[in-house]
Specification:
Two copies of one chain form a homodimer. Chain A is mainly alpha-helical. Chain A has helices at 11-33, 40-47, 51-54, 61-86, 90-107, 123-150, 158-175, 184-199. Chain A starts with 10 loop residues before the first helix and ends in a 21-residue tail after the last helix. The interface between A and B is large, with 46 and 46 residues. Chain A binds a DNA duplex (30 and 30 nucleotides) through helix 3.
DNA sequence: AAGCGGGCCGACCGCCCGTTCAATCCGACG
DNA sequence: CGTCGGATTGAACGGGCGGTCGGCCCGCTT
């Protein structure tokens, strides 16, 4: 019996994996079509179940949205922590944070950037979400400030810079398709290059002319 | 009677100005809260009338959305034409196009960038909208190509560059507030500087440290 | 073999909101 | 002052969708 522990999914594992699949599907739909435009019937149908089945995993639609958001924020803060550890300059940390975040969003989560349509949440959830998002944005602005201080980033307004970069980032789910010509890794690298060039004190003299020709995996 | 023609609003002028006000209000609401999250009651209330009154100006909610979109595209192509006339290099044309578009979006129209939630339109309207949007995006990519060819823009992937820039642009209505610390003109200039730095073959060595300290009006 | 229980289904409820319509208001005009 | 017509209203309708509930199916246990 114990032999099978890691190969045959237990009841709980099955439950969790289904729940995760639901979360991914919901996140993808919310990002592509918007929260209000996505019906539970739609999500359920994509998963091959009935709407009522969803209620075994989430008490209501709002909670589903909140769960997407929290997972996204987990990824965000995790990316930030890893970048702080691996990179020394403000620019390096900023770039790595954004790249780790984006790549995970793109392939793990079908992008959970549901920072929009926040008004759909209950006031306490909304407050919690705004607070976490602001903390993340503040951390990113601080990276920009660090970069300006250590000379790796040009003089600029950190607030505007991050508004602009996060806008571009949040928009990516609208046009990125896994079935498209670019892989998640290629897209991440190319977008990071653009962001870096915008802020670097030593901007690259050239960028990739064709994202589809970039390396298919991250060089390690 | 004819004396008053240009001072006292005629019936038609009144009708048109009310219709325009409705369009502005709707555009602002759609951009801030999303199409599906915005109820007609809400728009009507902000205008001091009843929901039913709106139906004297638009046959239904979808048409309202489509009208917003078409106005935005008018501004877009107009900006493009003016930029082509005034600027010689690809970079100059791209920058001016984006700046004209953004500034008009910000103050005239409360930003009508409702390229999202497209699924809300009827198939014919949707097709029409996609076609116009694609034409505009193509024109912008061509400006990037021109810029690369004439040396004003670095080697890069025009498609990705415009996806990124338009993403950042489309996100601006989410955070820009007329009551905020930055004017539309300041914001436009600062954002344009960021975009330009991302793509220019001769990136500026420094940018404004504080958007709120930039000139309040465009220098002419 | 029988019983148990979790997972899922079909059907239904109720609300919200887009849409309609008859009735009313109000300014213009004769 | 009466009438006409467009603008606006209040009330109602109907569909869509989030959410609920009772029951069925099926695998596991004893």
């Amino acid at each position: 019996m114990a032999v099978w522990k890691n190969t045959v999914p237990s009841k709980d594992e099955l439950y969790e994996s289904k729940r995760a699949a639901l979360l991914r599907e919901a996140a993808a739909a919310f990002n592509r079509r918007g929260f209000h435009a996505t019906s539970l019937d739609e999500i359920a149908q994509n998963l091959g179940v009935t709407k009522a089945a969803l209620y075994h995993y989430f008490p209501n639609k709002q909670t589903l949205l909140m769960a997407c958001f929290e997972k996204a924020m987990d990824v965000a803060f995790d990316s930030l922590a890893r970048a702080r550890q691996q990179e020394a300059t403000g620019r390096g940390r900023l770039r790595l944070t954004l790249a780790l975040y984006l790549e995970q969003m793109l392939d793990e989560l079908s992008a959970c950037v549901v920072l929009m349509e926040e008004n759909a949440l209950t006031p306490p959830d909304h407050a919690r979400m705004v607070q976490m998002r602001d903390r993340f944005e503040q951390a990113l602005r601080d990276l920009v400030r660090d970069g300006i201080a250590d000379g790796s980033i040009v003089a600029c307004d950190p607030k505007l810079a991050m508004f602009t970069i996060l806008g571009a980032l949040n928009w990516i789910p609208k046009w990125f398709r896994h079935s498209g010509p670019w892989t998640a890794t290629q897209t991440t690298a190319a977008v990071s290059d653009l962001f870096e060039r915008m802020l670097s004190s030593a901007p690259a003299p050239a960028l990739a002319r064709d994202v589809g020709l970039m390396p298919l995996t991250t060089a390690k």
